């Protein structure tokens, strides 16, 4: 503003520069939120592959766990970057993020992960979650027929469970001489990831309802969905206990006990719709769901050192 009260050209240019800077800062912050949003789930996924090695009693391959984590990161970041209608409500912190940056980093992570798995003859497994992730986000259109997993009741959760269960068990059990432990681990993690994906649907009820997406909490209601998840959780762990006691899978009681308790607490406390999730509640949920495998590996390591 000049001394005579009139807006001068330098003032206009300065204001425009400030606005551009603020816009760039907001875009950068949103992009960083986007890039880090899948970091914890990728680490959790890598550790789940390690746990799968233990249960299958197969030789542990560290590079395969890391490669699996990179692919998980790329698929989940790709889903965030491509964006869908309900994200405008559910994830406002990602608004304005650079999709190109996220897509580029996702591609790099996927290529590295796929090349590592390809050295072990597991290239097809590397592409399984990528193809499923694309169908989940964008769907498949052939003529008048269109399949979009994200809008179907329970189908999305089933596909998430089956695809990631197959991905985890497929990597860990690739060189196992006995197929049964691999199948059991596939069913165990498939059920667990079905439940986890449904738990996260409770957080997104408002956005999913507005977008016309019939998730289980939207279609069945909170109470019925909670009962379904609890039954699935108890049955899957009872089955795992049976085969653990009979020596079919590795004797890993810490995996079984912690997973059982963490899952029950998660289903009890985080299957309720909340308009705003407090920071403490978010931390607890992340610790119990995405941090479960980290806690299991940590407890197992500490127990091994003590005993």
TrEMBL record:
GO molecular function: transferase activity, transferring alkyl or aryl (other than methyl) groups
Example of a GO cellular component annotation carried by this entry: plasma membrane
Pfam families: UbiA
Keywords associated with the record: Membrane, Transferase, Transmembrane, Transmembrane helix
Subcellular locations according to the entry: Cell membrane
Principal subcellular localization: membrane
Residues spanning the membrane: 28-51, 58-76, 103-136, 157-177
Gene3D superfamilies (alphabetical): UbiA prenyltransferase
Topology in the lipid bilayer: Multi-pass membrane protein
NCBIfam families referenced in this protein's UniProt entry, alphabetically: PRK13591.1
Protein name: UbiA family prenyltransferase
Organism: Methanolobus zinderi
